[in-house]
Design a protein that fits this description.
- By secondary structure, the protein is mainly beta.
- It folds into two domains: 129 residues, 3-Layer(aba) Sandwich (Rossmann fold), CATH 3.40.50.10070; 259 residues, Neuraminidase (6 Propeller), CATH 2.120.10.
- The chain is 13% helix and 40% strand.
- It has five helices and 30 strands.
- Strands 9, 10, 11, 12, 13, 14, 15 and 16 form an eight-stranded mixed beta sheet that branches. A six-stranded mixed beta sheet has the order 2-1-3-4-5-30, covered by helices on one side. Strands 8-7-6-29 form a four-stranded antiparallel beta sheet, with no helix packed on it.
- A hairpin with a 2-residue loop joins strand 6 and strand 7.
- Helix 3 runs parallel beside helix 5.
- The longest helix has 17 residues.
- The chain is globular, with a radius of gyration of 24 Å.
C-alpha cells in the first residue's frame, strides 16, 4: 500500500465484501429539514488569516560568541533559528548581513524588532537571547538557556517558539512533531519526527499495516488503525507509556479515527452494522453513536475546530465527495461540487479553510476551500500523487504525502502551495502524516533567568 488513496480504494472494496456477509441495520429516519436547521450552529472563523503585509519586520542580528573561535553548536543554532523563523511565515526576516536601522526617523526605526543573542561555553553551553523594539533600546524580553552540545537543534526550536509567542501570540510549529506511517520490511508502522524532519522515532511493532494516525489535542496520544486478517481495528498509542491499547474492535473495518478538539471523543468509520458509516464514541469508553445512515461508504471524518461540525467523505452520489454535517449527524450537505473523486478532508485549526484531495488530470492534488465551498484553490501541481493533508497547529502550513521523487515521502507547504519542504528523505515509503499540537517537552533545556514584558 503506497498511498492513502490507494488504500482507500482497497478499503472500499474490502468494506463492500464485508457488507455482503453482514446483516444491515434498519435505516433510521433523519431529522426533518426544519429541525436540522434549528439545531445547526454555524462554524465560527476563529482567527483571521495573517496577510503578507501584516508580517512583523524582524531583524535577526545573529548569536555572537565571546570566543574568537566559532563553535559548531553555535553555527547549528544560528542556521536552525533562521530556518524556523522563515518557515513559520509570520516574519519579514532580515539577516545579520543587513545593517541595522540606527539613523533616521524614530517611528521608522521602531517598526523593526531586533533579535540577537550571546553564546558562551562553560560546563554547559549557554545562550542569552533578547528582543528589542529599537536597536538602541533596552530589551523588552530576554532569556538565558542552558543545553548540552547535542541539543543545539532543539534549543533553536525552543528559542524560535519563544520569539513567535512574544511577537505574535501564535502557536509555534517549531515545537511540534509529525507522526506518519512508514513502511518497514513490507509493513507500515507508526513513526514520528520533528516538524523539520529530524529525531525520527519508531513507535509500533504491530507487524500489521498501521494507517490513519491521528494526534490527540493534548499531544500525549496517537490513535491509529491496525489492519489484521479480515479485520481492521482502532488503537490508541500512549507516548509516555510507549504502549498501545485497543479503542474499538468489531468484525469488519474500523478505521480513520479523528479526535474532537476537546479530546473527549473520537470520530471514526466502522462497518460494524454491515456498511461503512461515521460513528463517535467517548475516548474513555461508552456506547458509540452512529451519525450517518446510507447504503454508501462514509469515511475520513474530521472535526471542525469549534467541535460543532464534522467533515467526511461519502460516495452516496456514486463517487467519493466531501460532505459536512453537525456532530449529531444532522444538516448533512455537500462541500465539493467539482471533480469525480474528492477525499481526505482536513479542517484548519483556524476554522476558515478545509484542505482535501481531488483526482485531477495531472494526478491526485491537494485543494483548499472555505467551509461553505465557495472557492476552491489548487495547492499542488504536477504528475503523481499528492495527498493526506494535515494542518500545522497555527494553520499556516500543511503536511502531505507525495511521490514526486519516485518514492512516497512527507512534505510541508504553506496554504498557497509555496515554500515546499521535504521532511523525510530516506528510502522508506511514508504516508498519512498527522501534525501534533505544540508540545511541552522537545529537549533538555534549562532556563536560568527570564525577563518578560
Amino acid at each position: 500500500m503506497n498511498s492513502s488513496l490507494h488504500n482507500r480504494s482497497i478499503l472500499f472494496f474490502v468494506i463492500i465484501v464485508v457488507s455482503s456477509i453482514c446483516l444491515r441495520a434498519p435505516l433510521q429516519a433523519q431529522d426533518s429539514t426544519t429541525a436540522a436547521e434549528a439545531k445547526h450552529i454555524c462554524e465560527v472563523f476563529l482567527r483571521s488569516r495573517v496577510a503578507l503585509a501584516d508580517r512583523i519586520l524582524l531583524h535577526y542580528l545573529g548569536v555572537k560568541s565571546g570566543d574568537s573561535l566559532t563553535d559548531p553548536a553555535a553555527d547549528t543554532l544560528n542556521q536552525v533559528l533562521v530556518r524556523d523563523l522563515t518557515l513559520c511565515a509570520l516574519f519579514d526576516l532580515r539577516l545579520p548581513n543587513v545593517k541595522p536601522d540606527t539613523v533616521g526617523a524614530a517611528h521608522l526605526r521602531r517598526a523593526v524588532t531586533y533579535l540577537d543573542g550571546v553564546y558562551a561555553v562553560g560546563l554547559n553551553l549557554r545562550v542569552k537571547m533578547r528582543l528589542r523594539s529599537d536597536f538602541n533600546a533596552k530589551p523588552f524580553w530576554e532569556k538565558e538557556y542552558q543545553f548540552a552540545r547535542d541539543k543545539a537543534r532543539p534549543i533553536a526550536h525552543r528559542i524560535a517558539a519563544d520569539v513567535i509567542r512574544q511577537c505574535t501570540g501564535e502557536p509555534a510549529i517549531t515545537e511540534t512533531r509529525i507522526a506518519f506511517s512508514g513502511q518497514v520490511d513490507g509493513v507500515k508502522e507508526l513513526f514520528s519526527m520533528t516538524f523539520d524532519g529530524f529525531d525520527l522515532v519508531r513507535h509500533t511493532w504491530e507487524k500489521n499495516p498501521v494507517l490513519s494516525p491521528a494526534w490527540s489535542p493534548n499531544g500525549k496520544q496517537i490513535a491509529f488503525t491496525s489492519f489484521g486478517v479480515y479485520q481492521a481495528d482502532i488503537f490508541i498509542y500512549d507516548l509516555d507509556a510507549k504502549s498501545s491499547r485497543p479503542f474499538f474492535s468489531a468484525p469488519g473495518v474500523d478505521q480513520a479515527p479523528a479526535w474532537s478538539p476537546d479530546g473527549q471523543w473520537l470520530a471514526y468509520s466502522s462497518s460494524v452494522d454491515g456498511n461503512a458509516e461515521i460513528y463517535v464514541c467517548r475516548t474513555d469508553g461508552g456506547v458509540a453513536k452512529r451519525l450517518t445512515y446510507s447504503w454508501s461508504i462514509e469515511t475520513s471524518p474530521c472535526w471542525s475546530p469549534s467541535g460543532h461540525e464534522i467533515a467526511y467523505t461519502s460516495d452516496q452520489l456514486g463517487k467519493p465527495q466531501v460532505f459536512i454535517m453537525d456532530t449529531d449527524g444532522a444538516n448533512q450537505r455537500r462541500l465539493t461540487m467539482i471533480g469525480e473523486y474528492n477525499d481526505s478532508p482536513a479542517w484548519s485549526p483556524r476554522g476558515d479553510l478545509i484542505a482535501y484531495v481531488r483526482r485531477d488530470t495531472d494526478g491526485f492534488q491537494i485543494y483548499v476551500t472555505d467551509p461553505r465551498g465557495e472557492r476552491h484553490v489548487k495547492a499542488t501541481t504536477g504528475p503523481g500523487y499528492n495527498m493526506d493533508p494535515s494542518w500545522s497547529p497555527d494553520g499556516m502550513r500543511i503536511a502531505f504525502t507525495s511521490d514526486r521523487t519516485g518514492i512516497f515521502q512527507i512534505y510541508t507547504m504553506d496554504i498557497y502551495g509555496r515554500g515546499v519542504e521535504i521532511a523525510t528523505t530516506g528510502t522508506m515509503n511514508c504516508s498519512n502524516p498527522t501534525w501534533s499540537p505544540v508540545l511541552e517537552n522537545m529537549g533538555d533545556i534549562g532556563i536560568n533567568n527570564t525577563k518578560e514584558p
